[in-house]
Design a protein that fits this description.
Elements (H helix, E strand, L loop, with lengths): L2 E7 L6 H13 L5 E7 L6 H11 L3 E6 L5 H11 L4 E4 L10 H12 L3 E5 L8 H16 L8 E8 H7 L9 H7 L4 E5 L12 H15 L2 H31 L5 H33 L7 E6 L4
Parallel strand pairs: 1-2, 1-4, 2-3, 5-7
Antiparallel strand pairs: 3-8, 4-6, 5-6
Length: 307
Amino acid sequence: MKLSIVTTLYKSAPHVREFHRRASEAARKITDDYEIIMVDDGSPDESLAIACELVETDPKLRVVELSRNFGHHKALMAGLDHAMGELCFLIDSDLEEDPALLTEFHRKLTETESDVVYGYEQERKGRLVDGRGGRLAWLLIGRLYSVPIPANQCTARLMRREYVDALLLHRESNTIIGGLWVITGFRQIGVPIGKGRRGQPSYDFVRRVSTLVNGITSFSAAPLHLMTYVGMAVSTLAFVAGIVVTVRKLLYDVPAGWASLIVSLWFIGGLIVFCLGIIGTYISRIFIETKNRPYVIVRRIYESRKS
């Protein structure tokens, strides 16, 4: 198998047929020896049913149905796990990224002899949350991650088999694929692409924040270090404030007052709870990883009955 196109399905019903048509056209421009793998990530709409209809007419299409919704990143890894191509093209099925990018990525991969060609947005578009919120998130990622993550990188990427095999060595339960792409190494090159905006995004604000927190705690110990610095700063301020209060009391008989004491207790208490929350997040990740549970469970694989 020369080429595998891997995508995931979640609330993708309006786009499945068009994605399949475009992906097939793009693949045939490179080789006739290809496959398309769609991973149904517990989609609540008709995505799976539509994909299964396409399977009956296209022997090059396989649909991997997961037993429930495991999350976008894990579903992508599951799709790569079932891909057999010497080249693997990873892309979302919502058509924000055009499957025709495969042709450009393949040319770039061949010209540069790279192992990975990935797409990135030069400038984030969209409303307040998508635009400014996204820029803020990437700023935090750039400052806090222990590895340099290409800003505004997209799902769309073309990868050689050696890289895919190395990527699949990562079996973390809390899968943050953007970081795994980078720490796997190999020769990677970015290509600027344009992304469309189609309907309601599948990632709402809460899921975006959750992904950001998971990413930071997966690839950075910066929050733990920050706790140390904040603790030292607060201790220093408390020590200085204690000296000031004592001096004012001894020299000027100025009462310290209970209000300042209560405010100080609230501040210290809030800081302690915040720090315990950060520690708890890291401990929970350790707890989950030590269970060594599979990060996805496949319910069924649908393939064409045609030879």
